[in-house]
C-alpha cells in the first residue's frame, strides 16, 4: 500500500504527535519529515524511509486504510489486532 502525506499528517494528529515525535519514533530526520508532509499525494522518498514511518506509526496503534474507491485514511487499530 502506498502512503500519502495526508495519511502521515492525519496519523500524527490522532496520536497528538508533533513532527519531532515522529522523527524520534521512526528514526527519520526531522528535515525529511518537514520535506514530505506538505506535499500532496503519495510520499516521494526512498522505501526505507517510508517503511520506517509506517512501522513507527503502526507500533503506536495506527492502521492505514488503503484506497477503496472513496479515498485513503487512517484510524486507531483495535486493541489486540495484529498489523
UniProtKB/TrEMBL annotation:
Q: Which portions of this protein are annotated as coiled-coil regions? A: none
Source domain of life is: Bacteria
Q: A single GO molecular function, which one?
A: DNA binding
Q: Which InterPro entries match?
A: Cro/C1-type_HTH, Lambda_DNA-bd_dom_sf
Signal peptide, first to last residue: none
Q: Which PROSITE patterns has this protein been placed in?
A: HTH_CROC1
Ranges for domain HTH cro/C1-type come to 8-64
This protein's name: HTH cro/C1-type domain-containing protein
The organism encoding this protein is Ancylobacter rudongensis
Amino acid at each position: 500500500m502506498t502512503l500519502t502525506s495526508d495519511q502521515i499528517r492525519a496519523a500524527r494528529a490522532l496520536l497528538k504527535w508533533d513532527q519531532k515525535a515522529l522523527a524520534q519514533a521512526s528514526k527519520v530526520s526531522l528535515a525529511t519529515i518537514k520535506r514530505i508532509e506538505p506535499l500532496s499525494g503519495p510520499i516521494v522518498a526512498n522505501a526505507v524511509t517510508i517503511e520506517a514511518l509506517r512501522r513507527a506509526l503502526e507500533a503506536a496503534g495506527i492502521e492505514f486504510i488503503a484506497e477503496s474507491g472513496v479515498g485513503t485514511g487512517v484510524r486507531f487499530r483495535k486493541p489486540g489486532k495484529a498489523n
